């Protein structure tokens, strides 16, 4: 299955999620772990489509998610920085997902500069992450 | 906002719904009404996008839906037959929505031939409609 860039943008406008989790990580120097993630979750009938997305970007994994669904996920910060973010900068999202993407990109760039290991940087990331998920349930 | 065909296909793969309702309609000759509908429901932040879709196809309406969301809907059988179905025949959907679309198109074509006013035709449409929504909730 060969995908086109505009199809990928449209599908991401429909089903894509840009998310940053700031999770407690006891025993580490920072005490927390910052986990950015680009994901698309679909029912198992669309397994082939998720694998086509993985092949399209050349990064990420397709794994089982909740409720028998499948997820295409990219969590590697370098892959997000070098592949996912440049793609969606070149091919602009048309929905409100674009707003979440721009915040997500800020966090990924800060992480590439190791800002999440500084108290100020971590606090800024926390604020951005908290803004990103507003209204997602709709 | 200018949309491209592949974006429209990708967004429909993500959020589009092809549905046929066979509803009781007391007092009419058939006793039922067959209502095919192509729709995309999104939160109010994406109002501009739904209006861009309406402008792209040149048919349908944008209206309030449940829970403060907005819906782009095409219900006119001739518009479905002349505009929506040819578009998605030319630009193939990549997800399982394609399967629902092919069933939907069969119903729309049957309705253009007035098959829904014959008992056999109506029974066939009922069967197709019942198959279409399987698994939609995921």
Fraction in beta strands of chain A:
15-25%
Distance from N terminus to C terminus of chain A (CA atoms, Å) equals: 30 Å
Strand count, sense and barrel status of the largest sheet of chain A are: 4 strands, antiparallel
Main structural class of chain A: alpha+beta
Count of domains of chain A: 1
Principal-axis shape of chain A: globular
CATH architecture label of chain A: Roll
User: Into which percent range does the helicity of residues of chain A fall?
Assistant: 40-55%
Task: Report the top-level CATH class of chain A.
Answer: Alpha Beta
Strand arrangement in the largest pleated sheet of chain A: 1-2-4-3
CATH superfamily of chain A: Homing endonucleases
Low-confidence residue ranges of chain A: none
- Tell how many strands the DSSP assignment of chain A holds: 4
What is the CA-based Rg of chain A, rounded? 15 Å
Summarize the largest interface: chains and residue counts.
Answer: A-B, 28 and 28 residues
Rounded average pLDDT of chain A = 93
Structure explained in plain terms:
- Two copies of one chain form a homodimer.
- Chain A is an alpha+beta fold.
- Chain A has five helices and four strands, in the order H-E-E-H-E-E-H-H-H.
- Chain A has helices at residues 5-15, 47-57, 77-90, 97-112, 119-132, and strands at 16-24, 32-42, 61-64, 70-74.
- In chain A, strands 1-2-4-3 form a four-stranded antiparallel sheet.
- In chain A, helix 3 crosses helix 4 (97-112).
- The mean pLDDT of chain A is 93.
- Chain A binds chain B through residues 1, 3-15, 42-43, 45-46, 49, 52, 67-69, 94-96, 135, 138, and chain B through 1, 3-15, 42-43, 45-46, 49, 52, 67-69, 94-96, 135, 138.
């Amino acid at each position: 299955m060969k995908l086109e860039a505009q199809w990928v943008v449209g599908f991401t406008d429909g089903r894509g999620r840009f998310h940053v989790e700031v999770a407690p990580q006891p025993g580490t120097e920072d005490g927390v772990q910052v986990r950015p993630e680009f994901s698309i979750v679909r029912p198992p009938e669309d397994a082939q489509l998720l694998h086509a997305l993985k092949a399209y970007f050349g990064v990420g994994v397709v794994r089982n998610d909740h409720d028998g669904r499948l997820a295409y996920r990219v969590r590697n910060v370098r892959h997000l920085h070098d592949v996912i973010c440049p793609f969606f900068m070149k091919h602009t999202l048309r929905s409100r997902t674009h707003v979440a993407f721009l915040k997500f990109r800020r966090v990924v760039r800060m992480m590439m500069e190791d800002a999440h290991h500084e108290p100020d940087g971590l606090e800024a990331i926390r604020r951005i992450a908290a803004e990103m998920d507003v209204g997602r349930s709709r």
